Amino acid sequence: MKGNIYIFPIFLFLSILSIFGLSCFSSDNAEKSNVNMNYFYVYPSESYPYNIYPKTPFQISLIIKESDNLPWKVCLLSFQDPAFKYSGDFCINSEEVAYSKYEYNIVLPKDGYISLEEPELLTSQSYSVNALLCYQYKSIFMLNGCISSRKICNLNINSTTVNSPIAINKAYFSPSPNGVDLVVEFSINNIQNTSNFYVTKENVLNSCNLNSFNVKNISFNYKIFIYTSDIKINNTYSYTSSINKDNKYILRVNFGKVSDMDNIVVMLTFDYYVTSVYVLPSVNVIKS
C-alpha cells in the first residue's frame, strides 16, 4: 500500500506537465506563462428585465459561466425595500440548477417573483441591482527551476487560468538555516472589479453573507506536491494574514536539507472561497 500513495498525484502531476510542456522551460528567468481559461463569470441573460412596470411580476435572469463545476451560491440583494413585494427565495446554489457546457441559467427569486407595488416610494427612475456571489475556487500553479542550498533559484510561474484571484508575482528557492525555503510572493486580485471582495478558507456557501467570516483577514488552504528521487512532498498547509493595503503577501515553506538540482517542478494548488458583491445592470422603472 505504501508504494501506491503517490500514484494519483503523480499521474495528475505528469498530465499537467505535459499540458505546460515544462521540460522546455529555462530556469534562468522568472517569466510567467498562462493558459487562458475563464473561471467564474456572472452576466444578464437575454430575458433580463431592463424595464419594470408597476404590479407586473418579474424575475432577475442570469447566466453563470465557470470551468470546474465547483460549488457556488448567488443571492439577490436588491428589491427588498417597501416599494416591492416578492415571493420565493432570493438565493440559489449550484446544486439546484442543471449544469451544461460550463454554464448555468438561473432566475431569482427562486420559485417566486418580484412586483413593484408602490412605485411612488421610489425617488429615481433607475433602480440599482446587486447580487452577492459566494463560490469555491482552485488555482493551480506550476513552478519550475533549480533548487540549491547555496544560492537563490528564481522559478518560472505557470497557471491554468489568467483570472485567478490569487496571483503569484514571484517564486524562488532560498537557502535558509534549516535547509531550503520555497518563497512565494503573491497578491489578491479583484478579478471582476466587484465590491466587498474577500478570499477565505472558510466555507461561506451555507450563509453566503459578508458577516460569515473575518473580513480583516485573507486565508486559504494550499497544497504542495513534488515527486523526485530526493524530494517527496504531498502536503496541505493553511495560510492566514491580515489584509495589507499594499496587497503584497509572502508565504514561506521550509523543505529541510535537500540536494542541489538543476530542474525541479512544484505543483502549488490554492483552495479557497470567494465572496463579493456584483453590480448588475440597473433596471428602468416605468411608472405609467
Chain-wise SSE layout:
Layout: H1 7-20, E1 32-34, E2 40-44, E3 51-52, E4 60-66, E5 72-76, E6 84-86, E7 91-93, E8 103-108, E9 114-116, E10 126-147, E11 153-154, E12 156-159, E13 166-176, E14 179-188, E15 195-200, E16 217-227, E17 232-242, E18 249-254, E19 261-285
Parallel strand pairs: 1-12, 3-19
Antiparallel strand pairs: 2-4, 4-8, 5-7, 5-10, 6-9, 10-12, 10-19, 11-13, 13-14, 14-18, 15-19, 16-17, 16-19
Structural write-up:
The structure is a single chain. The chain has 288 residues and is mainly beta. It has two domains: 2-37 and 136-276, no CATH class; 40-134 and 278-285, Immunoglobulin-like (Sandwich), CATH 2.60.40. The protein is 5% helix and 50% strand. It contains one helix and 19 strands. It has one helix at 7-20, and strands at 32-34, 40-44, 51-52, 60-66, 72-76, 84-86, 91-93, 103-108, 114-116, 126-147, 153-154, 156-159, 166-176, 179-188, 195-200, 217-227, 232-242, 249-254, 261-285. The strands form four sheets. Strands 1, 3, 5, 7, 10, 12, 15, 16, 17 and 19 form a ten-stranded mixed sheet that branches. The chain has a four-stranded antiparallel sheet with strand order 11-13-14-18, with no helix packed on it. Strands 2-4-8 form a three-stranded antiparallel sheet, with no helix packed on it. The longest helix is centred in the N-terminal third of the chain and has 14 residues, at 7-20. It is elongated. The termini are far apart.
